[in-house]
Amino acid sequence: MFGAGIPVLFIVGLVIYLRNKVEEDYNNRHPNQPELLSTTPRLDASVKGLDGQTIEAYPVTLLSESRRLPRPNDNTCPICLSEYQAKEMIRTIPDCEHYFHAVCIDEWLKLNAACPLCQICSTLCGSQTVRFPFRLIDQPQYCGYQDFELSCQVQETTQDVTILTFPYAGNFSVFHIDYAQQVLQLSYSEGCLPRILLQGLNLSGSPFMSVNTQSYTFYNCSTMVQYPGVTKIPCLSGFNFYVVAILTDGYTPLTSVCLEIAKVMVPMSTDWWEDGMTLGWNQPDCRWCESHQGTCLFENVGAGLQARCGSAIKHGMLH
Ligand SMILES: [Zn+2]
Ligand SMILES: [Zn+2]
């Protein structure tokens, strides 16, 4: 979490600054003549913001009485945290289609060229990038879905570990998220994955599922068998017996030398017997967006797993 801590604090600080500033501006300004520029403090030369012309080129929407937003995803401005009201100007960042009160985002963009949501939401845990549709447990809701919540376990001597908790199957360490393919590689943190597979891996209550399962037959053998395709499972084996698994199809059953325990559907990973597992997710479907360098976004914050793809500049948003 060290990686995420500093930017979050930085952004929280800026958000507080901007909120105070916006309130001040609301109290001070003339209705038709917002004097934001004159009250803006001198900028630190190391801070890279956008010039006024670039900011002005980003599309704005004047909210109608019905307060219909450019795309319905949230009715609260993430910078000042107040609800959008009729007749307010909303500015959309073209690259990602996140939007904010113009008065809020303009101040931000003068200090920092990157979208605050994109910046705060993409974070590192160890070497793992965590971003939409995932979010870390201490990140705001608008960063990702509750079902995709991860926690970052701080380690003293090694890299921080990203943990995914299943309602029934327990904790798994995430060691790779493939955002383009929508699969993740996990390892079981609490011991013996083959034991969990034998008991029945219960992934219900989570959007993740096996993408490629194969049936293995588990055997209990009194001596170690050396047939091709036989995988020894150390965490289930004992002093004088060996638990092994072999693909159910295409291999000769070991019943002459071993006792069959069960047939088990294994979510395939090259090292499943050493607690590795590959799972995937179908919803939200960001595959097209990821492969087209888009920014995948909520369709509606807090409702369903639909996502949309933010990218190209939308024209004619002023209405
Ligand atoms: Zn605002
Ligand atoms: Zn953004």
Automatic annotation (TrEMBL):
Any one cellular-component term (Gene Ontology): membrane
Keyword Transferase: yes
Enzymatic reactions: S-ubiquitinyl-[E2 ubiquitin-conjugating enzyme]-L-cysteine + [acceptor protein]-L-lysine = [E2 ubiquitin-conjugating enzyme]-L-cysteine + N(6)-ubiquitinyl-[acceptor protein]-L-lysine
SMART domains for the chain: RING (SM00184)
E.C. numbers: 2.3.2.27
Lineage: Eukaryota, Viridiplantae, Streptophyta, Embryophyta, Tracheophyta
Signal peptide (residue range): 1-24
Protein's UniProt name: RING-type E3 ubiquitin transferase
Sequence ranges assigned to domain RING-type in this UniProt record: 77-119
Gene Ontology terms for molecular function: polysaccharide binding; ubiquitin protein ligase activity; zinc ion binding
Species this protein is from: Gossypium schwendimanii (Cotton)
Recorded topology in the membrane: Single-pass membrane protein
Keywords of this entry: Membrane, Metal-binding, Signal, Transferase, Transmembrane, Transmembrane helix, Ubl conjugation pathway, Zinc, Zinc-finger
Subcellular location: Membrane
